[in-house]
Amino acid sequence: MRAAVVTDFHAPLQIQDLPVPEPGPGQVLVRIEATGLCHTDIHAAHGDWPITPTPPFIPGHEGIGRIEKLGDGVSSRAVGDRVAIAWLAYACGECRHCIGGWETLCARQQTSGYSIDGTFAEYTVVAAAFATPVPDAICALEAAPLTCAGVTTYKAIKVARVAPAETVAIFGIGGLGHLALQYARIAGGFVIGVDITEEKLAMATELGADHVVNAHAGDPVAAIQALGGVDVAVALAASPEAFDQAYRSLRPGGRLVCVAMPADNAAISLPIFDTVIGGKSVIGSIVGTRNDLADVFALHAAGRTSVVTVGRKLDEVNDSIADVLAGRVPARVVFEL
Ligand SMILES: [Zn+2]
Ligand SMILES: [Zn+2]
In this structure, what DSSP letter does residue 21 have? Predict the structure, then answer.
């Protein structure tokens, strides 16, 4: 099978011909049809974070395909089932986080394209229970971005407890941001889209943002505070500066939701006095559970969200990474296999 492989954190990915993996007990083999390029894949390929994957490995965690083979003991899935393979590829199901509905915090979790091989390949294996069903109404090209960008931003809006008529700023309108702003609207919020390119701000307006702010053209904090500030700011741009701006855009009672993860374990400094006096919260939000992903698919199948994609071939993986880093693609690159 063809796969895009990270062999070294300082080298481009290689397209290699590898053996098709065998599903182990409790696993399924999935023939991948489409898989999105997430910023996390780029951080993985570059070894950017405090915990790194171990090369050689196959990135990818927005994989959509059909099950071709069942491992021993699998009864919950069938050959031919259409499934999504997300970041959370396994959780123990037994620890207090798993039992409490927070499988994404499980210490024994496996992650696609990071701790185990991912979906930038014609085939991959995954635990059957983590091959999440995809409704037939959703095409593979649109299902792929929903599998990480969608579920991650849906969860961010959920943990922020956005209430109707609250105002939400989305910092970073791209693969994640264009979906985040739609979930904020579904929750009943007014939305301010913040980005540094006019093309992405135009997309935000088209998708229903009430205001847009160009953070390159002027101080976005001043612009947002002039609009009255926001109840919730979702930080999706992988730049510490954007996190700082997002925090300073909050009204009293505001919540900053941290989602992007800038390289090198970057930090922001919080003014304690303002945080206490203003009753502000800072929340970390990591992807979403299988239930969250099912919600995301249900909303899309019902026509409540739009997904903006750019289709590419897997051979174009390195050019695609360069395009994402340079801000040259409006939303999500999806490789069609
Ligand atoms: Zn992702
Ligand atoms: Zn667990």
Answer: P
CATH number of the domain located at residue range(s) 161-284 in this protein? 3.40.50.720
The rounded distance, in Å, linking the Cα atoms of 77 and 336 is: 24
**Per-residue model confidence as pLDDT tens for the chain (337 residues):** 999 999 999 999 999 999 999 999 999 999 999 999 999 999 999 999 889 999 999 999 999 999 999 999 999 999 999 999 999 999 999 999 999 999 999 999 999 999 999 999 999 999 999 999 999 999 999 999 999 999 999 999 999 999 999 999 999 998 999 999 999 999 999 999 999 999 999 999 999 999 999 999 999 999 999 999 999 999 999 899 999 999 999 999 999 999 998 888 889 999 999 999 999 999 999 999 999 999 999 999 999 999 999 999 999 999 999 999 998 888 899 999 9
Q: Is 225 helix (H, G, I), strand (E, B) or coil?
A: helix
Compute the Cα dihedral for 336, 64, 292, 136 and give only its sign. Answer: positive
Phi first, then psi: give them for residue 302, nearest 5 degrees: -85, 5
Residue 10 DSSP label: T
As a whole number of angstroms, the distance between CA 112 and CA 126 comes to 8
CA–CA–CA angle 306, 310, 311 (5° rounding): 115
Question: Where do you find CATH 3.90.180.10 in the chain?
Answer: 2-148+288-336
315 CA distance to ligand 1 middle (Å) = 20
Distance from residue 90's CA to the centre of ligand 2 (Å): 9
- Give the ligand whose atoms come closest to the C-alpha of residue 106: 2
CA–centroid distance, residue 94 to ligand 2 (Å): 5
Ligand positioned closest to the Cα atom of 145 = 1
For CATH 3.40.50.720, the residue range(s) in the chain are 161-284
Q: Which residues of 9-26 are buried (b: 16+ CB within 10 A; e: fewer)?
A: eeeebebeeeeebebeeb
Is the domain 2-148+288-336 a CATH 3.90.180.10 member? yes
104 Cα: distance to centroid of ligand 2 (angstroms): 8
